[in-house]
Design a protein that fits this description.
Layout (H helix, E strand, L loop, with lengths): L3 E6 L3 H13 L3 E6 L12 H5 L14 H5 L4 E3 L2 E7 L4 E6 L5 E5 L2 E4 L3 E3 L12 E3 L3 H11 L6 E5 L4 H10 L3 E5 L12 H13 L3 E3 L4 E5 L6 E4 L2 E4 L2 E4 L3 E3 L29 E3 L7 E2 L4 E2 L5 H13 L16 E6 L2 E7 L2 H6 L4 E9 L12 E9 L5 E8 L4 H12 L4 H6 L14 H9 L7
Parallel strand pairs: 1-2, 1-7, 2-3, 7-18, 9-16, 10-11, 10-16, 11-12
Antiparallel strand pairs: 4-5, 5-6, 8-17, 13-14, 14-15, 19-20, 21-22, 22-25, 23-24, 24-25
Helix pairs in contact: 1-7
Length: 455
């Protein structure tokens, strides 16, 4: 019996999960990954730890090594960029990015996990040297070289979302760092005002200069960048790091599968595209959001892996036995000693989804009052909920102490559609070494319900 051919485009989280899941789940399959990068497969979410010297080396910051797939009789072609799909003959044409040579890969099932590319700024002077992007293996090496370069004193980082990671790295490396953004506060697209105020103070306390409400208009310099031009004047710099978001890597798909106006791939509830036998997963699709009850962008390694697992489970069914259950969506945001986890919907996101939403924010020391303050850090926990039904829609944690696991509890509550009443009454462990009799989650929910609290 001839093997069923599964071709996967992209070797990052979704592609990796899809390839190994397929080989583990099915017999008589031939699995091939096409990856346009030379390196397979860099984890950009580990980039900050690499730059801080907290990994075993850049060549280990990856999902898997090619030989791991080959040992399972899978195939992987790096430096191989998919350029077109023939949906009539079920083939992918791919080009070797080094030699220009093209080859065709036949498929029975095709899974597109091409992901996103870091957004660039098409502004005057953007082609000058020392303008880097905050994503991928190549840029990780470039930024690492720059932080160790004594000739680089001033660093300008554009984008106060994920750009805060670069700001921390460069500040710790002794550089004079300026963080530039058109918004009013760092991380304002992700966090509530209470949290953004705290991050603003943390960044400035650690020497990061904030240039908020500042629009970049171009770059100047002789071969190398020397200044960032803005509507508030020039900012002198020896290096620019751009972290202003991402764009879907889908231009090559236009005319083959249906795309949204912004380039993201349209899929149904089974991740099937408009073309037969072609699926799409990962950062270039809009998965179903459980709390929003509709499709929204959820760029996340975890989301991509869940999507891949689901697609592979139903890959050879004529009609999948169940639709994809959906994603909650969570991410961590950190700078220096402060870290936040946000999950589900923010209050703003909920309102944009047409939900009558409220947010409660609870702040307290984590342990009983008889523990000295030096051993009793403060923590914040917020809950976003439907004002009418009290269903949990989102939430977040913030502390210099690691309370990130409590955000996982909120994620589960969102997925299971629990209410404020459920969280107010939930029983958790207690030990004064770690916690109070009432957990922060209990207390936040009780505050929302106007309970008389005994803390």
């Amino acid at each position: 019996m001839e093997k069923r051919k599964v071709v996967i485009i992209g070797a990052s989280h979704g592609g990796h999960e899809a390839a190994f899941e397929t080989l583990n789940r099915y017999q008589n399959v031939d699995v091939t990954i096409l990856e346009q990068s030379d390196y397979v497969s860099f984890m950009s979410c580990g980039m900050k730890l690499y730059l801080e010297g907290k990994t075993t080396g850049i060549n280990d910051v990856r999902n898997f090594r090619p030989e791991q797939l080959q040992n399972k009789n899978g195939h992987i072609y790096n430096n191989t960029k998919a350029v077109s799909i023939n949906t009539f003959e079920n083939t992918v044409t791919a080009k070797n990015v080094k030699t220009g040579e093209e080859a065709k890969f036949p498929y029975d099932k095709l899974i597109i996990s091409s992901g996103v590319n870091p957004a660039k700024l098409s502004l005057p002077g953007a082609n000058l040297e020392n303008i880097d992007l905050m994503r991928g293996y190549y840029w990780a090496k470039k930024i690492d070289e720059a932080q160790k370069d004594d000739s680089i004193h001033n660093v300008a980082i554009i984008g106060a979302g994920n750009g805060i990671a670069a700001a921390e790295v460069m500040a710790k490396a002794g550089k004079n760092v300026t963080l530039i953004d058109a918004g009013k506060k760092p991380l304002e697209n992700y966090l509530n005002n209470t949290y953004t105020d705290i991050f603003e103070k943390v960044l400035t306390k650690n020497g990061v200069n904030l240039a908020m409400e500042t629009k970049v208009t171009g770059f100047s310099g002789d071969k190398k960048v020397e200044a960032v031009k803005t509507d508030n004047g020039d900012i002198k710099t020896d290096l620019v790091i751009i972290a202003v978001g991402v764009n879907p890597n889908t231009e090559w798909l236009d005319g083959t599968v249906e795309l949204y106006d912004n380039g993201y791939i349209k899929t149904d509830e089974y991740f099937r595209t408009s073309a037969p036998d072609i699926y799409a997963i990962g950062d270039a699709v809009f998965p179903f959001s459980i709390p929003a009850n509709r499709r929204v962008p959820i760029p996340s390694a975890i989301a991509a892996r869940h999507e891949a697992q689901y697609v592979v489970e139903h890959l050879f069914e004529t009609t999948p036995s169940r639709p994809f259950a959906g994603i909650v969506g969570a991410q961590v945001l950190e700078a220096f000693n402060m870290h936040a986890v946000t999950t589900g919907l923010s209050e703003k996101m909920a309102e944009r989804a047409g939900i009558n939403a409220c947010e409660v924010i609870f702040k307290d020391h984590l342990r009983p009052a008889y523990i000295p303050e030096k051993d009793n850090p403060e923590g914040y926990l917020s809950i976003v909920y439907d004002a009418d039904s009290h269903q949990i829609l989102g939430g977040s944690t913030l502390s210099s102490y690691d309370i990130t696991a409590q955000a996982n509890v909120l994620s589960l509550a969102i997925r299971e559609k629990l209410t404020l009443e459920d969280l107010a009454e939930a029983d958790f462990f207690f030990s004064p070494s770690f916690d109070k009799q009432w957990n922060l989650i209990n207390l936040a929910a009780q505050k929302a319900l106007n309970y008389d609290q005994i803390v």
